Amino acid sequence: MRKWVRVESYSRYKGICMKQKKPYLLAEHPLLHSEVEARHTWSQVATASPGSMALARVSPTASSRSLLCPFSPSVLRPRISPHHQRGFPVAASLSQASPLPSADGDGAVMEATSRRPWRPTCLYFTQGKCTMLNDTMHLDKFNHNLSMDLPVNYSAADKVKPQKFDYFLILDLEGKVEILEFPVVMIDAQTREFVDSFHRFVHPSVMSEQRIREYIEGKYGKFGVDRVWHDTAIPFKEVLQDFEDWIGDHKLWKKEQGGALNSAAFVTCGNWDLKTKVPEQCRVSKIKPPPYFLEWINLKDVYLNFYNSRATGMMTMMRELQMPIVGSHHLGIDDAKNIARVVQHMLADGAVMQITAKRQTPIGEVKFLFKNRIR
Ligand SMILES: [Zn+2]
């Protein structure tokens, strides 16, 4: 049986996973999300963006010899670049495999070249700490423009509805014991465009250094981003100070006024981030929970009420919407980007984002506003 796979010319990140007997998309082409989401045939995708991507029909026998399995250790091993060896900071967020719907047919191997291949995001840059913006090799290797992963399909706009908010702040915390990563992606509610992002790795407050090293190795080592975590992580208290400056710069909040965000709302995938984790981390870090975290939009509840489908997580939503994932699942900034892509898709489909949960005080009981919700 032959399968369809997309192949990017980008270095090693192309292939078909023979272990899983499935074609895998290892590198995303940002210009083609909408077409890929909408249709999955060779001719349509190829016509949609001639010459700008590589798409190949590959038979398993032909591909098994030359292409890598996305789960092979060589792909998952942290990438050490010459910059690293010289002591320069280089960030990497590895592309993770995601399955594409398959189509059967005869498959002669075809390969085109990609002019703008997918690149991992520079995680120093997302935190405002990239010192290599003049280095063309570094710029060539890592993406410094998050909007590349969040393109808007302007042709799919006929169902778009007016929104109550001007901006959505998609937040997806990482860290079970203490928060380790605080990524936010800002989307324009009307145009669905990427506006800005805020990203910090968070240094735990009470954990021992030995424990932190093990924890970070286990969580981020597999993405090859443990080095950048150690280089950049700051305490939660400082993260919130930086975040308040950021929402202040965007005129979404004023420290003197306090209260909720101005014309913006947090969007999370579930209630855990703001119902449980932020108050818990504030207690551990001995800080007062900020007032802007008192209400949020749980995307799962909006998804349930809009599509009438119970999606238990981001991966289910993306599978149901036939959207390939971008980057590494459980790397917070990539998850936030993927949730933002789900938001863009839902807005295009005509969903209206509304607050689904709120509390009166930072530790008060949470009131859920949707009758039909994911528990
Ligand atoms: Zn950089």
Mean pLDDT: 76
Number of helices: 13
Q: C-alpha Rg, in Å? A: 21 Å
Instruction: Please give the domain count.
Output: 2
Strand order of the largest sheet: 9-8-7-6-10-11-12-13
Bound molecules: zinc ion
- Number-wise, the strands total 13
CATH architecture of the largest domain: 2-Layer Sandwich
Task: Give the ordered list of helices and strands.
Answer: EEEHHEHHHEHEEEHHEHEHEHHHEE
CATH class annotation of the largest domain: Alpha Beta
Which geometry do the CA atoms define?
Answer: globular
CATH fold assignment of the largest domain: Nucleotidyltransferase, domain 5
Helix-and-strand structural type: alpha+beta
Strand content: 5-15%
End-to-end separation: 41 Å
**Low-confidence regions:** 1-114
- What would CATH call the homologous superfamily of the largest domain? Ribonuclease H-like superfamily/Ribonuclease H
Lay out the secondary structure.
Blueprint: E1 3-6, E2 16-17, E3 22-25, H1 33-38, H2 42-48, E4 55-58, H3 60-66, H4 73-76, H5 82-85, E5 98-99, H6 136-141, E6 167-171, E7 181-188, E8 194-203, H7 209-220, H8 226-232, E9 234-235, H9 236-249, E10 264-268, H10 272-284, E11 295-298, H11 299-307, H12 314-320, H13 332-348, E12 357-358, E13 367-368
Parallel strand pairs: 6-10, 8-9, 10-11
Antiparallel strand pairs: 1-4, 2-3, 3-5, 6-7, 7-8, 11-12, 12-13
This protein binds zinc ion.
Zinc ion (ZN) binds next to loops.
